[in-house]
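Severity: low
Component: inverse-folding endpoint
Summary: output formatting inconsistent between runs
Steps to reproduce: submit the following structure tokens with default settings.
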């Protein structure tokens, strides 16, 4: 059942983080829904501009509708990830989405406020909530490259002002993560002090952590052993740190890259071990199972596993 993102945040805030998973195809949808039902977790399925282009808006939305019917136990929200203004308006008009993210974080503060406020006004008129972003993550995001050295952590005072001026419902904050497989080197990690400062000024306000993949070294090693060439210095967020961020207001955790690594590992190993094979459904079935296991594991780390009964109780479902 599709619910509002706000409802999930109301139940989750301070207790667990809701996993927000990007999908681009049918196999990911099958594994995502299976993994969340298996681990009894509420979740957010999110669609990027790239996904809407790759799978066609009509098709990716139809896949989600079909999954909702096939997995009647699943409780989830549908979200636009890193939307621009036209994508947000299109999603708001469609009536299909629980929430949209307007990402104008590459603009200066005043322009980010102006763009976000326009989207918030349009979304709220239709009962849809809005995630915005302030601060710059490192790494590669859509077509914008931000040098890790110049990635700005979110300024807490600006975050409070930004939320007051825009009326957004949740805020993606830059707290040390970046998109993709190369996030940290050496002993770098999440900036808990910064998250705590933001929460102090924005109590009970849901914060969103982007770039939350952990890029497991074993996964990279398996991919490379099966013919891949991913730089083994790739490093992500320690997934044992998710739960420490929860009491500080981190309520939504975005994961995409790790799922892509699962896909790559399964398919590389399958075709290495079965060079004669060409029926793509065989590795497809393995991927769905592996992706479901991966989602259930992440949900354990986020604390969302086993929360479905509580969500149903609070929301009266
Ligand atoms: O933050 C970006 C997400 O990982 C989506 O990636 O734009 O390649 O679909 P994408
Ligand atoms: P990763 O690249 O770390 O998976 O981050 C995904 C993300 O933030 C999607 O918005
Ligand atoms: Zn992101």
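Observed output (run 2 of 3):
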């Amino acid at each position: 059942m599709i619910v509002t993102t706000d409802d999930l945040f109301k139940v989750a805030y301070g207790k667990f983080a809701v996993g927000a998973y990007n999908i681009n195809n049918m196999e990911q949808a099958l594994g995502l829904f299976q993994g969340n039902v298996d681990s009894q977790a509420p979740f957010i399925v999110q669609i990027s501009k790239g996904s809407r282009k790759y799978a066609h808006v009509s098709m990716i939305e139809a896949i989600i509708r079909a999954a909702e019917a096939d997995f009647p136990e699943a409780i989830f929200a549908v979200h636009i990830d890193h939307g621009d203004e036209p994508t947000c308006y299109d999603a708001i008009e469609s009536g299909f989405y629980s929430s949209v993210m307007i990402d104008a974080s590459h603009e200066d503060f005043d322009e980010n406020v102006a763009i976000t406020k326009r989207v918030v006004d349009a979304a709220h008129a239709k009962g849809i909530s809005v995630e915005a972003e302030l601060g710059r993550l490192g790494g590669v995001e859509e077509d914008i490259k931000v040098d890790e050295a110049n990635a700005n952590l979110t300024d807490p005072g600006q975050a409070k002002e930004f939320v007051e001026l825009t009326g957004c419902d949740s805020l993606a904050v830059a707290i040390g993560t970046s998109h993709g497989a190369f996030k940290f080197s050496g002993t770098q990690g999440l900036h808990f002090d910064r998250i705590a400062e933001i929460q102090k000024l924005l109590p009970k306000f849901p914060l969103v952590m982007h770039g939350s993949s952990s890029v497991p070294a074993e996964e990279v090693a398996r991919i490379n052993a099966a013919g891949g060439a991913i730089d083994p210095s790739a490093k992500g967020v320690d997934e044992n740190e998710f739960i420490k961020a929860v009491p500080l207001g981190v309520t939504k955790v975005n994961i995409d890259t790790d799922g892509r690594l699962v896909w790559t590992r399964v398919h590389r190993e399958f075709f290495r071990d079965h060079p004669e094979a060409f029926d793509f459904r065989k590795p497809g079935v393995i991927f769905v199972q592996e992706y479901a296991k991966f989602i259930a594991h992440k949900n354990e780390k986020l604390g969302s596993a086993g929360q479905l009964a509580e969500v149903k109780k609070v929301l009266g479902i």
